[in-house]
Write a structure and sequence with these properties.
Blueprint (H helix, E strand, L loop, with lengths): L1 E8 L14 E13 L5 E6 L3 E2 L13 E4 L2 H5 L6 H10 L10 E4 H11 L12 E7 L2 E7 L4 E4 L8 H8 E2 L5 E12 L2 E9 L1 E2 L10 H5 L2 H11 L6 E4 L9 E6 L7 E8 L10 H7 L3 E8 L2 E2 L4 E3 L1 H10 L1 H20 L3 E7 L4 E8 L21 E4 L5 E5 L7 H9 L3 H8 L2
Parallel strand pairs: 3-15, 6-8, 6-12, 16-17
Antiparallel strand pairs: 1-21, 2-3, 2-11, 4-10, 5-9, 7-8, 7-20, 11-12, 13-16, 14-23, 17-18, 17-19, 20-21, 22-23
Helix pairs in contact: 3-7, 7-8
C-alpha cells in the first residue's frame, strides 16, 4: 500500500461555524449483530446484547486476564472490518438507501476527531491515531485503524476489572457470542450519519420477549412472499448465493431487536476515584447510549451498582459543547472533501509533532468492502441489485436473460424454501 501526503488540517482552520446548529436528531436503530466464536468469521443478526443481571450475592472478582479484544471487527475479519456492518444493515433493511448517507463510521473515529478538536475531552489526552477513508459516490466510509486489535493480559499485569465485571453482572443471550455491535443512524447538523458501536448490555423492560431465532423464522414465509412480490415488475432471473460464496463472512439469523432506550454502557472504577460524566459523556453522545452503570470497587469487591438514565446529561453536554461540535461538523466535511480530491481513498493520520491531521492519498489500494456491496450505491433501475432475503441469505440478482419475465424469476426463487436459504447462508 503506497501513500502520498495530500493535505494538512490544522485546528485553528476550523472556523465558519456561526451558522451551524450541531445537534443530533432523528436517531434510529438500523441493525445489530453478535460476533460468534467459530472457525471462520461468523455473525448472528440481529443478535442480542447481554442482559443486565445483578447477582444476588456480591463476591470479589478477579482482575481481567488472558485474551482480550481491542477492536474485534478488525481482529476477526481483517480483510474488511466494516463488512459486518453492511451485511447486518441489508439483512434487516434490504432496501435501505445507503446513497442518502454522508458518513459511515465507527464510534471510535468520531471520538478521535472530537479529541483532536478538544484535546482536554480525552482522559489520556490526544494520542496518535489513524483512520482509513473511502468515498463512494457521496458517502464517506471511515474505518478504525487500531494499533493493536487484541492483547493478552498476563498474570502480573493489571488492566482493571471491566471484562470480569461484565461476565459477572450480565447474562449472554446468544450462544457463543463474543460481543454485540449496534448500527444506528442520525442527523448531526446537516449530515446524515451511520454509527457502529459495541454495546455492553441492555436493561430488560416489562413485556420483553425471549431471545429466539424462532421469533425470526415465524415470519420467514411472509417476508419471502413480500420479497417476491416486490420483484413483480423486474424482468430478471434470480441467482441465489450465500454470503460465504462472496466473502469469508458467514451470517446467521438469530436473536431479537433490542430498542435503543434499553442500551447500557458499563464503566468500572476504583471507589476512591469516582468517574465523572465528563469522562464518558462524549462516548455516550456519539452512540446516543441512554443508560450508564458506574461500578465502584475496592480490590475487586464491588458495591451494588445501579443503572442511571443519562439522557438529560447527554443533552446538557451537547448544549454546552456547541462550539466544539460545530467544529466537528466542519472537520468531517473538510476531511471528506480532501479525500475526494485525492481520488476517494486515503488515510487520515494525527501528526503528534506537528499537532495536525494529515490526509495521505492511497495508491493501488484495494476496496474497503467486497465488490458486491458497492452495487447498493447504484441506480436500482439501471444496474444489478444486491438484495437480502428474509432468512438473511444474500440474493445476488443479475440480468442473466432479457427474455425472462417476473413470473419465471419468482418461480425460481420460490422453489428455494426459507430453510434452504437459511442453510446456505450459514454454511
Amino acid at each position: 500500500m503506497a501513500s502520498i501526503p495530500a493535505s494538512e488540517i490544522f485546528r485553528h482552520e476550523l472556523h465558519d461555524i456561526s451558522a451551524i446548529s450541531a445537534y443530533i436528531s432523528n436517531v434510529q436503530h438500523l441493525a445489530s449483530y453478535n460476533w460468534i466464536e467459530a472457525p471462520t468469521p461468523t455473525i448472528a443478526v440481529p443478535g442480542c446484547p447481554s442482559l443486565w443481571s445483578i447477582p444476588k450475592v456480591s463476591r470479589r472478582l478477579p482482575k481481567d486476564s488472558g485474551f482480550i479484544y481491542i477492536a474485534q471487527n478488525a481482529a476477526r475479519h481483517p480483510e474488511s472490518p466494516l463488512e459486518p456492518l453492511f451485511r447486518a444493515l441489508f439483512v434487516e433493511n434490504p432496501s435501505f438507501d445507503i446513497g442518502s448517507i454522508d458518513l459511515v463510521s465507527d464510534r471510535n473515529n468520531i471520538r478521535k476527531l472530537l479529541s483532536f478538536i478538544n484535546p482536554k475531552s480525552s482522559r489520556n489526552g490526544l494520542e496518535t491515531f489513524t483512520i482509513k477513508i473511502e468515498v463512494t459516490k457521496d458517502t464517506a466510509i471511515f474505518c478504525r485503524m487500531a494499533t493493536a486489535v487484541s492483547e493478552i493480559v498476563g498474570p502480573r499485569e493489571f488492566k482493571g476489572f471491566g471484562y470480569e465485571f461484565e461476565k459477572a453482572y450480565t447474562t449472554s443471550q446468544i450462544s457463543g457470542s463474543t460481543g454485540h455491535h449496534r448500527i444506528i443512524s442520525y442527523r448531526f447538523a446537516d449530515l446524515n450519519i451511520i454509527v457502529r458501536h459495541e454495546t455492553d448490555g441492555y436493561v430488560k423492560v416489562e413485556g420483553d420477549a425471549p431471545t429466539s431465532s424462532k421469533i425470526l423464522k415465524d415470519h420467514e414465509n411472509d417476508n419471502l412472499s413480500d420479497l417476491l412480490d416486490s420483484l413483480a415488475l423486474s424482468p430478471i432471473d434470480l441467482e441465489v448465493k450465500s454470503t460465504s460464496a462472496l466473502s469469508r463472512l458467514t451470517v446467521k439469523k438469530e436473536g431479537k431487536v433490542v430498542p435503543l432506550e434499553s442500551i447500557l454502557e458499563i464503566k468500572t472504577r476504583v471507589a476512591h476515584r469516582p468517574l465523572s460524566m465528563q469522562e464518558t459523556v462524549a462516548q455516550l453522545w456519539a452512540s446516543q447510549t441512554p443508560k450508564l452503570v458506574r461500578a465502584y470497587h475496592n480490590n475487586g469487591m464491588f458495591q451494588r451498582p445501579k443503572v442511571e438514565d443519562v439522557t438529560v446529561e447527554i443533552r446538557e453536554w451537547e448544549e454546552q459543547n456547541q462550539t466544539h461540535l460545530k467544529k466537528l461538523t466542519v472537520l468531517i466535511k473538510t476531511i471528506i472533501s480532501a479525500v475526494k480530491e485525492c481520488g476517494g481513498k486515503a488515510t487520515l493520520k494525527y501528526d503528534e509533532k506537528g499537532d495536525k491531521l494529515v490526509v495521505w492519498k492511497l495508491v493501488d489500494e484495494k476496496p474497503m468492502l467486497p465488490n458486491n456491496l458497492y452495487f447498493k450505491w447504484e441506480d436500482k433501475k439501471k444496474s444489478d441489485e444486491v438484495l437480502v432475503g428474509s432468512s438473511g441469505a444474500l440474493l445476488e440478482i443479475t440480468n442473466t436473460s432479457e427474455g425472462d419475465n417476473a413470473t419465471a424469476a419468482k418461480g425460481k426463487l420460490a422453489s428455494t424454501s426459507p430453510s434452504q436459504i437459511s442453510g446456505q447462508i450459514a454454511s
